[in-house]
What does this fold into?
Amino acid sequence: MTATLQDAITRQRLILKGWLASSLAGLAEDCRAAWPARERLEARLAEGMEELPYCKYLYVLDAGGRQVTANLARSGPMPEQCGRDRSDRPYLAEALAGAPFSLSEAYLSRNTRRPTLTAVQRIEDGGGRLLGWLGADFDLRELPATQAMYRQPGQWLQMKGDPAIRAGLFHQARSDSLMDQRIDAVLDLMHELITAHGVFHGKLHFSSSRATLWLVDDPYRYRIHGIDELSDPGLCLAYPPRPYPEQAVVPAGRVREVLDTFKALRFMDETLYLRAGSLNLFNGLVGLTFSCDGSHYMPWDEFLDKSLGFWLGTPDGK
It folds into this structure.
């Protein structure tokens, strides 16, 4: 997990902890007053469900981590959960270590098999002696949005692929595909579709002679075209003319350079060669998959700054 992504998750958790800590502290104090009467505890938990609009379940555990109430849900109590031993669940680790309040990492719940968070609040008697814990489960899909959507950082990412393919790399050689045989016509057409017909993300699969296209007019569905369509200029008639997007971070005048570099990488070596390349105008990332099954994602300008020697690992490569 990248540092930026982890930072975004950490910020979200801090916001949730601040929201939950005070709410659960008051509810735990009322549970102390009702202890150990199950009916009174469950009645207070039912009220708590109204006070915590995004909560999935509320329940109370004893000092050993065994549940002493039903799960209280929006649909009512779940009495079959009473008596459940939760002491070995990871979300209780901080509580068992003495934390007065904790919020778990996200995990898949046993009941719903969906991403869940659990908050745990310590319940003490008037003298500070541990009575048990108040637990609150939250389904991540039901939590309110408290920050902007995570944005992928514009930095180079390298990912290894299938080790079996890497192991057999030097026992294979590139075979001319139909796209290789018509590559100049394909690149001309792809350039036209990207710069003048609304394609904002295009991926060329050189080895399998096909392309997948995403359009600004219909971004939720991609189109797949085979080699005959990709080498026919009439394909542009299927997509109405569109101005080059103002939000694009790749200058229109540099799109052809990216496509030409794909061609150079495709033919740079008979063993190490490009199998697929993609370009996204809005995040400015180029995606590459090589014959060794390794993948790279990098900013378009950094991509254009690399020589073929860099990809081949020659001494003069930058």
